[in-house]
Known about the structure:
By secondary structure, the chain is α/β, with parallel strands linked by helices.
Amino acid sequence: MKLLFVCSQNRWRSLTAEKIFQGIDGHEVRSAGTEDHARIKISEGYVGWADVIFVMEKKHVRRIQDKFRSSIIGKRIICLNISDDYKYMDEDLIGLLESSVSEYLQEWHS
């Protein structure tokens, strides 16, 4: 399964998620940001590549829906509700990501 993690700048939250979930259970993982100055900016190619898109906040869902309306048809977009309060590889962020994403991964593998 191809997982795309999205936050605003692709520097802390989504990049941490990409790092910790890469290769687990054979998943391919990428990350991107919705802002113009993101480290890697989300594109139609990224949206098309992904089987599932995990976003950190509701505003990211709206931005993806507004910009890639036709590309997200049939895609699963899951909002993790993780605010922008963490640095890259922050222990609390890793714990939040592992607990929130793991329940979806277990659901798909059962």
